[in-house]
Amino acid sequence: MYFPVVFFFIFLIFINFAPQQQQNNQFYLNMANVIRLRKGLDIHLQGKAEETKMNLKSNGKYALVPDDFEGVVPKVVVREGDSVKAGDALFVNKLYPEVRFASPVSGKVTAVERGERRKVLCVKVEADAEQQYVDYGKKDVAKMDGKAVVGALLEAGLFGYINQLPYAISTNPSVMPKAIFVSALRDKPLAGSFEFEVKGQEQDFLTGLTALSKIAKTYVGVGADSPLTSHLSPLTSQNIEVNIFDGPCPAGNVGVQVNHIDPVNKGEVVWTIGDPTVVLFIGRLLNTGKVNLTRTVALCGSEVNKPCYVDMLVGEELSTLLSNSYNADHSVRIINGNVLTGTVSTKDGFLGAHSSEITVIPEGDDNNEMLGWIMPRFGQFSVNRSYFSWLFGKKEYALDARVKGGERHMIMSGEYDRVLPMDIYGEYLIKAIIAGDIDRMEQLGIYEVAPEDFALAEFVDSSKLELQRIVRVGLDILRKENA
Fold first, then answer.
1. For 409-460, how does the pLDDT look when each residue is reduced to its tens digit (9 = 90+)?
2. Relative to the CA of 404, which of 25, 64, 166, 433 has its CA 20 to 30 Å away?
3. SS3 readout for the chain
């Protein structure tokens, strides 16, 4: 007897929902491809940057750090006291000397810092009051072929910003890729908005993508609600394919996008750009003839007084940015990058080549909890609902840097699979890497992964293993074996 009433309410809900659903479907149909991911985890943290920019006056100290470019063996080509222009090479890749790395500013080389076994830690430059640039000449991208694009990037010292799979390292020009993948989706915790950064620079972004498409077919991944789709629509008829990724983090990982579009097999190479600002670097070079390594960085984290954005150059010293940005009454952790994949830094550190965030969170070493883990912890996050905070729904958390537990035996519980939207067996791959079983690693898909793909798995791992470090070690072993 209740069936007609229930049917009537369902009908009302449907007629109210249908127009919006039809509009969303029409939006998706207008684009090339929609890939929906269900595995993953969105971590909501306090301190997300507001879309306002802070004016920053630099102290004039810069440094280019070779470790920002994975797999590069640096050979310094300048000496202390040399004068350089913005765009001049500071060091080259010893294995591929044609791959140069450009100075972000003009000025005087003040130091070449070295560590153990004379490893190059950084090349420091003190900027001139008035900047001078090497003029590489404006280029008409429409008239260039792939060889000319690669040559222009090599000459200007920007080629090394492009990575590759397999091995997740800075690529080299000796092997051309079967495809190029660009992820314009930033979805890690507190990630800076690329849509905000690219405003007013859309033409540079389109120029950069067009240039990459001259080398190989280029796949661009964007978010489901990204306004970039309207700017990219004219490019879909060229050698560029736009794909919409609809799902939680890590949908924005370029490795995840490769896995769902065109996986990498043994013997194949794809070039990847997980940092879309690199495309802006390329576009600016071709449109102006000058190297401009300016990027919009999110100053974020629960310890930051006023989270916002700021324009900085790659390699700029962080002390100017962080001098009065957070409360120094207790211990904090400064992260060069995001909380999942960034590196620990200090005020004296320098902005990383691929860092779109500077994150400040509590260190947690001065936090003494009464009764420890036995407390209900209403204000702390837990994936497995170990705390009662899940009763309050979605909320933002002020997490600190504590691991909360020690390393222990690996338990095959399927934890990784729930946050790893890739067609691989994550737990078995990690075990194969720890065991040093190269054949097993290859069979389990190590050619498809990068350390950042295991960042969320590392966060939820109850065994407290350093999964990103383990994956990097495995990739280095494989690269050395196949060399």
1. 888 888 999 999 999 999 999 999 999 999 999 999 999 999 999 999 999 9
2. 433
3. CCHHHHHHHHHHHHHHHHHHHHHHHHHHHCCCEEEECCCCCCCCECCCCCCCECCCCCCCEEEECHHHCCCCCEEECCCCCCEECECCEEEEECCEEEEEEECCCCEEEEEEEECHHHCEEEEEEEECCCCCECCCCCCCHHHCCHHHHHHHHHHHCCHHHCEEECCCEECCCCCCCCEEEEECCCCCCCCCCHHHHHCCCHHHHHHHHHHHHCCCCEEEEEECCCCHHHHHHHHHHCCEEEEEEECCCCCCCHHHHHHHHCCCCCCCCEEEECCCHHHHHHHHHHHHCCCCCEEEEEEECCCECCCEEEEEECCEECHHHHCCCECCCCCEEEEEECCCCCEEECCCCECCCCCCEEEEEECCCCCCCCCHHHCCCCCCCCCCCCCHHHHHCCCCECCCCCCCCCCCCCCCCCHHHHHCCCCCCHHHHHHHHHHCCHHHHHHCCHHHCCHHHHHHHHHHCCCCCCHHHHHHHHHHHHHHHHC
